[in-house]
Amino acid sequence: MADRTRARIARIASHLAGAHSNRVHENGVEREDCRAKGGAGGFKVAVLGASGGIGQPLSLLMKMNPLVSVLHLYDVVNTPGVTADVSHMDTSTVVRGFLGKEQLEDALVGMDLVIIPAGIPRKPGMTRDDLFKINAGIVRTLCEGVAKCCPNALLNIISNPVNSTVPIAAEVLKKAGVYNPKRLLGVTTLDVVRANTFVAEVVGVDPKDIDVPVVGGHAGITILPLLSQVNPRFSFTNEEIEYLTNRIQNGGTEVVEAKAGTGSATLSMAFAAAKFADACLRGLRGDAGVEYCAFVASEVTELPFFASKVRLGRAGVEEAFPLGPLNSYERSGLEKLKKELQASIDKGFAFARQ
């Protein structure tokens, strides 16, 4: 009985910390690899920044995803508690926690999908440029780990400013000789989620029945909803177009101000990131017709990175769709965003090349 109890404790302990760690608990039981019993095969996913405002609800949502067989949660603080909490959910996904820079590589080995929400949140009065000073370094360090430990994984970048952090990730992967532009994706799904919600409010339908393409980037005027291409088609007045475009572009600020210094868009971002991660996993599984907007290396415009609708598959981004016909308002918005987006991309390149 004692041996069975010790073995059970060892299995539980392996959920709560890196399976590759050989540190010993107070009860003398070493952590050992743990495998899901009876669970269906799936993908291995890592969330880097799992203890943060986005990371915690995102970790919960990924634990609920039946396509995830192993979920690695990494952060520099509080990961054991988050891992213990999430691991109690009665789904078949095996959860393992990793704490601190010394366990980053263990968290990444063998992953199919790596999601990076790590970084500080935006606060009232703070621009995305302010975020850059801190989050750029965090993203660079984490991507160095990805390049070393799981260079073939799909990489979803959430850390803001996405317009700059995705180019940083690209440069890090290039330096390591493992850059594959099809497998690096900036997550702009929250812009689409907001667009679907706000348009549905105006036209009076269920948001799940709306699909609004949102192109460009992931900050302010670089966010361009293509309201002329809403599916199903609706007609909007000039006032409605102006209202919807402005609200979609400033959705993040709306949440920051509403939270009055207590945080930024964490819950809606986690929801959007989980939707996009699920799409990536369905693509990896080989599902047909998986199409989402994402900020990727692109030839859709003259800019080196651009958010547009892409088709996801086993290779990652298998096709980037052209913008299609734009009305005069959208053409004007596209020209306005290019200069600002290019400057953000260049800022990311310059930081990574220092």
- The CATH architecture name of the largest domain reads Alpha-Beta Complex
Low-confidence blocks of residues: 19-40
How much of the sequence lies in strands comes to 15-25%
The fourth-level CATH homologous superfamily of the largest domain is Lactate dehydrogenase/glycoside hydrolase, family 4, C-terminal
CATH top level of the largest domain is Alpha Beta
Please compute the radius of gyration using only Cα atoms: 21 Å
Number of helices: 11
Order of helices and strands: HEHEHEHEHEHEHEEHHHEEEH
Task: Calculate the mean pLDDT score and round it.
Answer: 90
**CATH topology descriptor of the largest domain:** L-2-Hydroxyisocaproate Dehydrogenase, Chain A, domain 2
Question: Strand pairing plus helix content: what structural class?
Answer: alpha/beta
Short description:
It contains 11 helices and 11 strands.
Spell out the blueprint of helices and strands.
Elements: H1 2-16, E1 43-48, H2 55-63, E2 68-75, H3 79-87, E3 94-99, H4 104-108, E4 113-116, H5 128-149, E5 154-157, H6 162-175, E6 184-186, H7 189-203, E7 214-216, E8 223-225, H8 238-249, H9 251-259, H10 267-285, E9 290-297, E10 305-313, E11 316-320, H11 328-352
Parallel strand pairs: 1-2, 1-4, 2-3, 4-5, 5-6
Antiparallel strand pairs: 7-8, 9-10, 10-11
Helix pairs in contact: 2-10, 5-6, 6-11, 7-8
